[in-house]
Specification:
The complex is a heterodimer of chains A (383) and B (143).
Chain A: E1 6-17, H1 24-39, E2 48-52, H2 63-66, E3 72-76, H3 82-95, E4 101-109, H4 126-130, H5 136-151, H6 155-169, H7 183-188, E5 191-193, E6 196-197, E7 206-215, E8 227-236, E9 248-249, H8 257-269, E10 278-281, H9 286-295, H10 304-309, H11 326-330, H12 334-350, E11 364-371, E12 375-382
Parallel strand pairs in A: 2-3, 2-4, 10-11
Antiparallel strand pairs in A: 1-7, 1-8, 4-7, 5-6, 8-12, 11-12
Chain B: E1 4-6, E2 22-26, E3 32-33, E4 48-52, E5 56-65, E6 86-93, E7 97-103, E8 116-126, E9 132-140
Parallel strand pairs in B: 1-9, 7-9
Antiparallel strand pairs in B: 2-3, 2-4, 5-6, 5-8, 6-7, 8-9
The chains are: A alpha/beta (383), B mainly beta (143).
Bound molecules: zinc ion.
Zinc ion is lined by residues 26, 28-29, 31, 40, 42-43, 45 of chain B.
């Protein structure tokens, strides 16, 4: 039995979606204030911050609005794992014994439409984007197309994941897309990157999340319902994995960073996939949720077809997945996305998830983010 | 009438009677990479040699780009009115590497994982000098 080191004692969120006239950073500030109120602390009590944003400014400048208290504030930029990396850093800052109380912050605000490719920042030539490649949507279309071919996943399963996401999103007052869609509506929307249609993809969006972390032995000073961080892991890709922004891929195959991050997180937590009561998995598109169910160890490759048809990943199912509607219903403000998943899990473990509460008093929860250029972050929470 | 020019130097041999993609091979472990690069992601070796890659292979996976990519960076026709969807895939070059490429085909009915493919070139746009800028693509092998 491992002792608990770090607890989440306060959470705050600015609703996701599109908010004209509100800057990304202001959404971050709003989330921080809500999280402080939730934990019953003042901003001046916070000893350190890790803040992440990909496109909405340097997070450390938000202290000019929150208060110039002199705290240690470190900016985190790590692609789609930015939020997960901020949380990892905050977790270890407390676990190391250096600090007692700190905050992980993520916010973002992206332009409309698919993410614009910047091949140079990825160390690749301009010709790659000029030629019509290097789109993340293409990568996801190609990865799930190969996966469907290898493991017999159907188009219906892709539509089923989206239908679930928008149904769960309709029960989430902070979600962006709150209108349920039928499987047929999902399938009949515009084909963006075969076999994936418009409603199978999430969109870049806006939002902010803040999480206050404390030493576990002091958690009850701040909350009656502490949620303990059992593990936080970030892994990059190994040779042979198939990743976004890759002009070539090795002939030999490696399972990828999600498999590595998941295995390390379970080992650190001392539990296995069968012990998890609710999971938030990266669903950049509906196929990603399906592949990530297996990559995170929750089933064998191909079993998802049956699990989805039986409703096992619904809120009332055996393993509820993406109970807040995931990226599909919330959009993906890169800096905030990974922290949104943790926020949702804290609500679920506190029993505060309202209409979308997972029944039977869930005790353990799992989050997984994945993104360019082949990076995964996993956390395991327990109460 | 202008001439045909490559989208970038050093990506494929040009001009050439039979152009080929240009990659790198690790002098320590033999790992093949595309495009050229100086270090090896497999063995961390620090020296590579430039090699011309094979012209034929099999389709490992594919998709169809169904909407105009943002321009820039896309240099082809990105006008919503005239944009034509195009195929994109990875072609497995035997004994070498899987290369990401445009496909000359875009109808899902006519694309299949495992199909035989060969290297070709497609026009991308006309530059300010009136030259036709071309990039590489793979086409189903005529049987
Ligand atoms: Zn090597």
């Amino acid at each position: 039995m491992t002792t608990d080191d770090v607890a989440i004692v306060g959470i705050g969120m600015h609703p996701f979606g599109r908010h004209e006239g509100v800057s990304g950073m202001d959404m971050g500030v709003s989330a921080v204030r809500t999280a402080c109120a939730d934990a019953g602390v003042e901003w001046s009590d916070i000893q350190f911050a890790f803040g992440g944003s990909a496109a909405a400014g340097n997070p450390d400048t938000m202290v000019s609005k929150l208060g110039l208290t002199g705290l240690q504030f470190i900016n985190v930029v790590n692609g789609c794992a930015t939020g997960g990396s901020a949380l990892f850093s905050a977790y270890n800052s407390i676990k190391s014994g250096m600090f007692d109380l700190g905050i992980a912050i993520g916010f973002d605000k992206h332009e409309r439409g698919a993410f614009r490719v910047n091949t140079r920042s990825s160390g690749l030539g301009d010709w790659y984007g000029e030629s019509g490649m290097a789109l993340t949507t293409q990568f996801f279309g190609m990865k799930i197309n190969r996966y469907m071919h290898e493991y017999g996943i159907s188009n219906d399963s892709l539509a089923r994941v989206s239908e679930k996401a928008f149904r769960n999103g309709s029960k989430n007052e902070n979600a962006w897309r709150r209108k349920p869609l039928s499987m047929d509506e999902v399938k009949e929307s515009a084909m963006l990157s075969y076999p994936l249609t418009q409603y199978m993809f999430c969109s870049p969006g806006e939002g902010g999340v803040a999480l206050i972390l404390a030493r576990a032995d002091q958690a009850h000073k701040y909350t009656d319902t502490p949620v303990y961080l059992k593990s936080a892991v970030v892994r990059s890709r190994r040779f042979g994995s198939f990743e976004v922004m890759a002009p070539s891929v090795a002939l030999e195959h490696n399972a990828g960073p999600t498999v590595d991050a998941s295995a390390a997180a379970f080992e650190m937590a001392g539990i296995g996939p069968e012990d998890i009561d609710v999971a938030q998995l990266q669903d950049t598109e509906s196929g990603a949720e399906i592949m990530h169910m297996a990559e995170n160890g929750f089933c064998e490759h191909g079993e998802q077809e049956h699990m989805l048809a039986m409703g096992e990943t619904e809120i009332g199912g055996r393993l509820p997945v993406n109970t807040d509607g995931g990226c599909l219903a919330n959009g993906e403000p890169i800096g905030a996305s990974g922290l949104r998943q943790v926020y949702e899990n804290v609500l679920q473990l506190r029993g505060d998830a309202g209409e979308r509460q997972v029944p039977n008093n869930p005790k353990t929860a799992y989050t997984h983010v994945y993104g360019a250029p082949g990076i995964s972050g996993v956390t395991i929470l327990a109460k | 009438m202008g001439k045909q020019v490559p989208v970038a130097e050093g990506v494929f041999t040009w001009p050439s009677d039979e152009p080929r993609l240009i990659g790198s091979k690790c002098t320590d472990c033999g790992n093949v990479m595309f495009p050229t690069q100086s270090g090896c992601p497999k063995c961390s070796g620090q020296t590579t040699e430039t090699v011309e890659l094979g012209r034929t292979g099999t389709l490992w996976t594919w998709t169809v780009q169904g909407y105009p990519p943002k321009s820039p960076p896309y240099a082809g026709d990105a006008s919503p009115k005239t944009f034509e969807p195009f195929g994109v895939g990875y072609v497995e070059l035997p004994g070498e590497v899987k290369v990401e490429t445009r496909l000359t085909v875009s109808d899902p009915e006519h694309i299949e994982i495992g199909m035989e493919m060969e290297l070709t070139f497609v026009p991308l746009y006309t530059n300010d000098d009136g030259d036709e800028v071309v990039t590489f693509a793979f086409a189903p092998t005529a049987s």
